[in-house]
Amino acid sequence: MSDARPAPGTEIVFQWRKWDGSPHWRHECVYLGADAWGDWVGQPAGWHSARPGAEFFAASPNVTLVPRQGDFALTVNRRHPKGMRVYIDLGWEIGWSDDPLLVTGIDMDLDVIRVESERGTWVDDRDEWAEHSALYGYPREVMSTLEALALDLEQRVRDRVAPFDDATADPWLDRLEALGLARPL
After folding, report:
1. Phi then psi for 122, rounded to 5 degrees?
2. Which of 69, 85, 125, 147 gives the lowest tally of CB atoms within 10 Å of its CB?
């Protein structure tokens, strides 16, 4: 993993893979900068995300925190049409590759989601987690670590403690929107 970072405003890619190395989501992003929590990348409305068999264009601006250490990537949306404010991908080996324009990680299925509705906050994709743990043979220590992390993150998102609060992500969303990089939907 590299310590090199591009200049703020530089287009980058966030590339996920599955445990067996097969490709997963590829997100077009822009590097925004860093704070005490880690590096922030953004995806303006209209930018592309794809994985084998699926694709979408961001319906609203979003920013993703890539912590310096940690097994998750925190995405915060602004004005998401379905009210999704927080989406956390639990992962493994998340970080900058040797290419300063590429963030990589292994998607580990479990997600923590917060929507602005009665549903609130929950851990998602437990069925996928169970299926893939058998299919890919996740090591027991990896499973224990991530199961505990999912519950911890769920509580911290509910409690809205930094960096899972609006006050931490909103300035990065403002910075993203100030770049004026939106593409037509």
Report:
1. -160, 165
2. 69
Identify whether 4 is part of a domain: no
- Global confidence as pTM: 0.95
DSSP 131-176: HHHHHHT--HHHHHHHHHHHHHHHHHHHHT-TTSSHHHHHHHHHHH
CATH value at residue 124: 2.40.380.10
What's the number of domains the chain is made of? 1
Residue 175 lies in a domain: no
Task: Tokens for 163, please give them.
Answer: 């960096």
Is residue 116 classed as helix, strand or coil in its secondary structure?
coil
Percent of the chain with pLDDT over 90: 90
Q: Are strands 102-115 and 62-67 parallel, antiparallel or unpaired?
A: unpaired
Residue 92 falls inside a structural domain: yes
